[in-house]
Amino acid sequence: MGRSDKGIDADGLVRRFKDVEAVAGIDLTVAPGEIYGFLGPNGAGKSTTVHMLTTLLPPTAGRATVAGFDVARQGPQVRASIGAALQEAALDPFLTGREHLRLQSSLHGITGATRRALIVRLLDRVGLTHAGDRKVRTYSGGMKRRLDLALALIHDPSILFLDEPTTGLDPQSRTALWNEVGRLAHEEGVTVFLTTQYLEEADVLADRVGIIDHGRIVAEGTPAQLKAEIGKPTVEVVPERPDDLERLRGLLRRFGIETAARPGAFAVQLDGHGDLPAVIRALDTDDVRAAEINLHQPTLDDVFLAKTGHTLEGAEAE
Amino acid sequence: MRLQVWLIAQRSLVRTFRQPGVWIPPLTFPLMLMAVNSNGLRAATHLPGFPTDSFLAFFLPFSFMQGALFASGIAGVDLARDIDTGFLNRLALTPVRGGALLLGQIGGAVGLGMLQAVIYLGVGLVAGVRIDAGVGGAFVILVLAVLIAAGWGTLGLWIALRTGSSEGVQSQFPLLFFATFISSMNLPRNLIEVSWFRDLATINPVKCCTCPSAPAWIPLTLVTKVSASADVESSAASANSGLIITLA
Question: Does A277 contact chain B (CB < 8 Å)?
């Protein structure tokens, strides 16, 4: 089907499960051709949001349109416009990759020579030509994820939902998937709604990021905008002599607030009372010799911390 | 819709027959029980009023029923696994209709039911069972076997949808298995002297599958349809020997 010129719009989307409010009123807009990263810890409401946007779960309140169709009232039109690779590759271990593609394409009404050519092309595109006739139970996690992506793309959707697509993948498979998702969005104009709990993934891949915590979006913008909002780099210093650590601590506290550092090092998040050269001059003046000085720009984790009061890892542990 | 059912059924058949552990025991266990009971209970044929002089001929329909019971487990467990793994969500995101999805899911159970019926019937014929109704009767038996497998398969799907887990489906199996034994599998109801057993056998849905007077309230539409369309037990009771299937 042709690319839709409409993306995703959600307005006050709510989902309750008995007493639990998994999604507590989400407003978001994703432009056509954009990669939107939905970042949050486990249990934040990411998957529930995806389930509502893909029509698998009716919203308790609020409304949303996907590709211009209402998710509550125009389910078949929404489903015809989207592809989805949901959390954990949902595959049948006893079917081959090619059989999965054949089933999925047939259910979408693609048959005959068109189907055969499409399957060959998709297997090639996700690097599974050699494994197409093997049962999925013999696939690695990365291969399953790639097949999952191929299945989501089989009917040429204009909007793609990827729910934690790289969870459990090795770095090589993760990079390959990022490249393919980036290509889909930037070369083919596919709108991508990507949930992730990996800061790096959102940072590298997403044009815009929405940070979700306890069912609410607490921050939204491009990764650069969000980090600029925090705007405070961190300076970490490793003293040459371990005995100088206490003196270093007193010195650095003049420049900012103490933050997490490696053992044997001290770090502060600069609060505007000086920059890196000022820190270096102070070290020189106080005769604290540094073995190592590192300047960290703010990360999305810093953004998450600033917006929610806890780190992404801390939220996982809650 | 028909194409969708066929596509889902095809997948169900393929996954069933690619797992020997899933289809071999349901195929062989009723055969073993048939062999044991038809020899061990042969003396029952001497009871006044026993419908045949061959216990195998009397017992053969039960093998279809038992095989179909196993099929209910296959259909239910398959659906529950699809719910667990999210495969059902994947299918739900295609244009497939909900009815086609569920009907197709019992494809594996129906395919196995058909295979079971052919084998059980073949074994019965080799062992001397005679179908008085001829080739047409044999055909009806096969159709019935498929319908019964579909009926039990539907029950499996219902349990899967209610419980949402394969463990939930499997935990119901002993109950269903028990139901097959509290039935007229070994004796016609009119020869069961223990009243509570006879009463249970009367209201037991398994009994109803081979009974012309199946109560309409039994929530197994396909099974009830089977009972309405054929009368295995009463036909067997009226035969001097062998197995007869007559359409009601």
Answer: no
Question: Which residue has 């800061």 as its token pair?
Answer: A199
Asked whether residue A166 falls in the same domain as residue A72, the answer is yes
Residue B50 pLDDT greater than 50, yes or no: yes
Mean pLDDT of chain B: 76
Co-location of A200 and A277 in the same domain: no
Give CA–CA dist A145/B233, Å, rounded.
Answer: 54
Three-state SS at A264: coil
Q: Is the Cβ pair B87, A90 closer than 8 Å?
A: yes
Residues B233, B213 contacting (CB under 8 angstroms): no
Is B19 in CB contact (< 8 Å) with chain A? yes
One domain for residues A39 and A153: yes
Put simply, the answer to whether A56 touches B93 (Cβ < 8 Å) is yes
Interface test with A, best of B93, B97, B101 (most A CBs within 10 A): B93
Distance CA A62, CA A15 (A): 9
pTM above 0.95, yes or no: no
Buried b (16+ CB within 10 A) or exposed e, B204-222: bbbbbbbbeebeeeeebeb
Q: Does A56 touch chain B (CB under 8 A)?
A: yes
Alpha helices for A34-170 (secondary structure H): 46-53, 75-81, 97-107, 112-125, 141-153
pLDDT tens, position by position, B129-139: 887 778 888 88
Backbone φ and ψ of A220, nearest 5°: -150, 140
Residue A181 distance to chain B (closest CA, Å): 19
How many Cβ atoms are within 10 Å of B151's Cβ, its own excluded? 27
The CATH number of the domain holding residue A81 is 3.40.50.300
Looking at residue B153, its pLDDT comes to 83
> Is the separation of the CB atoms in A295 and A234 below 8 Å?
yes
Whether the CB-CB separation of A198 and A178 falls below 8 Å is answered with no
> pLDDT exceeding 90 applies to what percent of chain A?
49
Give the structural domain span for A42: 8-91+139-228
Give the separation between CA A302 and CA A227, rounded to whole angstroms: 8
Q: pLDDT at residue B99 above 60?
A: yes
Task: Indicate if A237 and A201 belong to the same structural domain.
Answer: no
| B139 Cα distance to chain centroid | 16
pLDDT in tens, A11-65: 999 999 988 899 999 999 999 999 999 988 888 899 999 999 999 999 999 999 9
